[in-house]
Amino acid sequence: MINPFSKLGISDDVVNAVKDLGFENPTPIQEQSIPVLLEGNNDFVGLAQTGTGKTAAFGLPLLELIDFKSNKPQALILCPTRELCLQITSDIKNFSKNTSGANVVAVYGGANIMQQLREIRNGVQIVVATPGRMLDIIGRKAIDFTNVKYVVLDEADEMLNMGFQEDINDILSTTPDDKKTWLFSATMPPEVRRIAKNYMDSPVELTMGTKNTGNVNIEHEYYIVRARDKYAALKRIVDFNPEIFAVVFCKTKLDTQDVAEHLIKDGYNADALHGDLSQQQRDKVMQRFRDRNMQLLIATDVAARGIDVNNVTHVINYSLPDEIESYTHRSGRTGRAGKTGISICIVNSKEIGKIRQIERIIGKQFTKAALPTGFDVCEKQLFALVHKVHNVEVNENQIEQYIPRIMDEFAELSKEDVIKRFASLEFNRFLEYYKNAPDLNSSTDERGERGERGERGERGSRTSEGYTRLFINLGSVDDFTRGDLLSFVCNNGKISGKAIGKIDLKGVYSFFEVENATVESLFNNFKGVEFNNRGVRIEKTADTDGGGGGRSRGGFGGGGRREGGGYGGGRSGGAERKSYGSGRREGGERSSGGGFRDFSGRSREDRGAGGAGRREGGSDRRRRS
Ligand code: AMP
C-alpha cells in the first residue's frame, strides 16, 4: 500500500522520518496544503488553528524544495516566540533526519548569540527565527539572505499582536523579491490581511474549517460566579476533573503568581509561567509541564504563546483576555493533534457580553455549565480512586513478601470493610473539605445567601495572624521559582505551606513570610541545611513586625500586604485571602501521611487523606443549562 504522504508527493527519506514520528495519515491541513506548496511557485495563506499539523504542512514541502547540496539559507521561517521557534526547529530536524546535508538553525533571543552565529557560519539551508534576534543578526551582517526562496510567517496574527510588524517588514526587505511567502495564521484580522496584500502575489488561500472557526475538537464552556469566588471555582473545576492537565490563563503576571502560589499552598501541582521569569526558569517550568510532572500551568498570554504540549485536557480562562482574538490562541492549547479538549471561562455576570463576542469570533456556541456541588466533587473523586485501584498494576514480586502481614492486619475485616476503608482514604479528605461547600454558581438569591454563609464559615475557620519576614540566601540564580522556594522551605523547615505568606524571589537571595508561631521551629529545622553543598542561611529582616499592618521594604511585610493580597474579587479584604483553601489545607494537615507538606511536585493523589467528614447532602448535580 502506498504511504499517504508519498501520495501527496513527499519523498521516501522524509516519509520514513515522519513514519518514525508516528504520522500515519496526513492531517487535513497537510492533505490540502502539501500538494499546493510542493509546486513551489505560489504565495500561500493558510488559515489554521494551532495543533492541526501546520509545521509539517509547510515543513515537508520545504524539505522537497530546498537544494541541500548548497549550504546557503534558502528558507526563513519567522514565528512569534522562542518556544515555537525551538519546536519548529526540532520538528524540521526530525522530518529531515534521513535527508543528507540538511541543516536547520534556531535563531531566538535570550540565548547565546555567538553559538547561533557559529551555526549560521557553518552553513544552513533553513533558518527558524523570532523577529528580534533575526534583525540583530541581519544588523551584524552575519547572514546572507540573497538565496532565500521561501519565507514562512507562522502564527502571523500572534507576531503582529506582539508588535513585530516593523521587524517583519525590515527582515523581509533583506530577502529577494521573487521569493515565495507562505503565511499561516489562526485568525485573520485586518492587519494580517494587509500583510497578505502587501507582500504576496495572488496567494493561494486555504481555510481549514470555516473561517475563524475554532478547532472542532474543542468544547467551550462558561461558568458564572461572583468575582470573589473565582479562585474557589477554579479549585472546584480542578477537583471535579481528577485527571486534569491544564493551562490556566490569567491577565497579569501578578495574577499568575498569586494563583499559582495559592494552588501550590493548597496542595495542587501547579506553577506560574510569565515574562518576569528568566529564560532558564521558564524552560524549567515548561519541562515540568511537558513531562507531566505538573498538572496546572498558570500562564499569561504572552508567556504561553507557542506552547506546544499535546494532551492538554483543559484550558481555563481564569480571566478573559482583553483582546478577544487571543481567546482562539488560548483555547488552541487544547484539542491538539486530533484530541478533544475543553476550554472553560470563569466569568462574572457582567462578562457574558464578552462570551457572546467570542462566540461570534470562533463561530461556535459556548455551553453554560454549572459548577459541580461539593457532593459531585466527592463522588467524582471517589470513583476516580476506585478506578485507579481497579487498574493499578500489581508488582507481584515486590508485594508478595508483605502479603502475609497485610492479610494478618485485615484478618478481622470482611472484604467489604477493606474496600470501604481503601476508598475512604482519599474520599474523606474531599468530604472534609467540601462538607460545608457553598454553591458557587452566581444564580438565585436563595443559593446566593447559602453560598455567602457557607463561604464565611470557611473563611472564618482561621484568623489572621502575624507573620515574620525572613531573608534566605537562595534565589532565582539557584534556579528556584517561587514554587521551588516554597517547597524547599516547607520540606526543610518541616512546616506546612499554610504557614508561609508572601514569597519575594530575588536573584541571589529572597524573602518570605512565615507565621510567627512557626518561626522558631523553622530556624531549628534549618540548622545545617545545605543546597548544592552550600550552607543555607535564613535571617529575620529588620523590617518585619510580626503581624502588623505596615508595608515592609519589599512591600510584603506583615499582615498589611497579606490582607491586601486577595484577588479574584478586587485585591481587597483579608477574608478573601484567608479563604484560600482553608478547608482543604486543614484537611491535608490533619493527615497522617504528612498531608500537604510535600510540595515536591507529586500529584495530590499521592498525599495524605484528611480526617473523617460529613457529606453535604445535595442533589444539585453539575448541569448544563
Ligand atoms: P503542529 O500544529 O505542527 O504544532 O502539530 C501539532 C501536533 O500534531 C504535533 O505534536 C505533531 O507532532 C502532531 N502531528 C502533526 N502532523 C501529524 C500527523 N500527520 N499525524 C499525527 N500527528 C501529527
From TrEMBL:
Biased composition (Gly residues): 545-573
Stretches the record annotates as Disordered: 441-462, 540-625
Keyword flag Cytoplasm: no
Domain Helicase ATP-binding: 35-206
Signal peptide positions on this chain: none
Enzyme Commission number: 3.6.4.13
Keyword terms: ATP-binding, Helicase, Hydrolase, Nucleotide-binding
Domain (Helicase C-terminal): residue spans on this chain: 236-383
One GO term describing the cellular component: ribosome
Skewed-composition ranges (Basic and acidic residues): 444-462, 574-589, 599-625
UniProt feature coiled coil, ranges: none
Motif Q motif per record, residues: 3-31
SMART domains on file: DEXDc, HELICc
Domain of life the protein comes from: Bacteria
Ranges where the DEAD-box RNA helicase Q domain occurs: 3-31
Any single biological process term in GO: response to cold
GO MF term set: ATP binding; hydrolase activity; RNA helicase activity; RNA strand annealing activity
Keyword presence, ATP-binding: yes
SUPFAM superfamilies to which the protein is assigned, alphabetical: P-loop containing nucleoside triphosphate hydrolases
Family: Belongs to the DEAD box helicase family.
Protein name: RNA helicase
